[in-house]
Write a structure and sequence with these properties.
It contains nine helices and 14 strands. The protein is α/β, with parallel strands linked by helices. It has one domain: Ribokinase (UDP-N-acetylmuramoyl-L-alanine:D-glutamate ligase). The strands form two sheets. A ten-stranded mixed beta sheet has the order 5-4-1-8-9-10-11-12-13-14, sandwiched between helices. A four-stranded mixed beta sheet has the order 3-2-6-7. Helix 5 packs across helix 6.
């Protein structure tokens, strides 16, 4: 059965709204807090499923109430969770998130059971050419590399969201089909690869795409995104102008990645894929929280008129 397989982290997000982000040694008071299902893997799986794509989640949770809540939330949104394992000694991962009144956030993540996530949870038989594998960097990196190499051999398309940023072996990069980064992550990986660092997003994406022989997607927040292929062709797309409607940017990048993976799975054009992903990421900023704010496919459809189709980069 063909689907998008998301291989990655599952966390509980402990969220607090603050007037301003605390400085070192400073205590900031806030009236209350929320705890919501999160983790880049779970977020991206839910975003993909909500966009109308058959999606499976592969990862690890703890044998605790937090894990149960994550599991049930994904299941309610029709994500296949049969390959989510329960660790008997490590707790479910947790992210502590503070969001200030401008919508900016700071995040600290305790990985917990995510450290036990293994590439062995994905059998070779589901790494065929009809499937798309979406990964991030909140589980042991070697497990991602194993899945990318096996997927290359079996024909599945692979997408890596380099968040948080980390070094990638060159032989893994050349086996990868899509690399999704923001501008900060892009500069960090270029530096680790010993490449000339460009501040211009288009030049940086082009450098990464050509040196790693892949398609590089670079997100730029409210400015939209650019994509560059290894042959030098590229496109740029805008974002929805939300103005003062921005509530919380948490999860916007994960929403972009999940919807983009779904578009790749559906074999949509790169222009259409970029527009739908950018719109979805924008809409996710209109509500508080990550998963709770992610739009469904009909909401994305209704907003298509707010962003033009991606245009070629001259």
């Amino acid at each position: 059965m063909s689907m998008v397989i998301v291989f990655g982290s599952l966390n509980i997000d402990l969220m607090m709204e603050v007037e301003h982000q605390p400085q070192i040694g400073e205590t900031v008071l806030t009236p209350t807090y929320k705890w919501l299902p999160g983790g880049k893997g779970a977020n991206q799986a839910l975003a993909c499923s909500r966009s109308g794509i058959k999606t499976a989640m592969v990862g690890q949770i703890g044998d605790d109430g937090f894990g149960t809540r994550i599991y049930n939330t994904l299941k309610r949104d029709e994500v296949w969770v049969s390959s989510v394992g329960r660790h008997d000694s490590e707790p479910t991962g947790m992210a502590f998130i503070t969001t200030d009144k401008t919508g900016d956030n700071q995040i600290v993540v305790a990985t917990g059971a995510n450290n036990a996530t293994s590439g062995d949870q994905i059998p070779d038989e589901i790494l065929g050419p009809d499937n798309v594998i979406l990964m991030q960097m909140e589980i042991p990196h070697a497990e991602n590399w194993d899945v990318i190499r096996r997927a290359k051999a079996k024909g599945a398309q692979t997408i890596l969201n380099l968040a948080p940023a980390g070094a990638i072996p060159k032989d893994v990069l050349v086996d990868l089909d899509y690399l999704i980064v923001n501008q900060i992550e892009g500069r960090q990986i270029a530096e680790k690869m010993g490449l000339t660092i460009e501040d211009d997003a288009i030049k940086l994406a082009k450098t990464l795409a050509e040196n790693a022989d892949l398609t590089c997607v670079m997100t730029m927040g409210h400015l939209g995104a650019v994509v560059m292929k290894s042959n030098g062709t590229g496109w740029k797309v805008g974002a929805v102008n939300l103005g003062e409607d921005v509530v919380d940017t948490t999860g916007a990048g994960d929403t972009f990645c999940g919807v983009f993976a779904g578009c790749v799975f559906e074999k949509r054009s790169i222009q259409d894929s970029m527009r739908r992903a950018s719109i979805a990421g924008s809409l996710a900023c209109k509500s508080f929280g990550a998963q709770t704010a992610m739009p469904r496919s009909d909401e994305i459809d209704d907003a298509l008129g707010l962003v033009d189709l991606a245009t070629p980069i001259q």
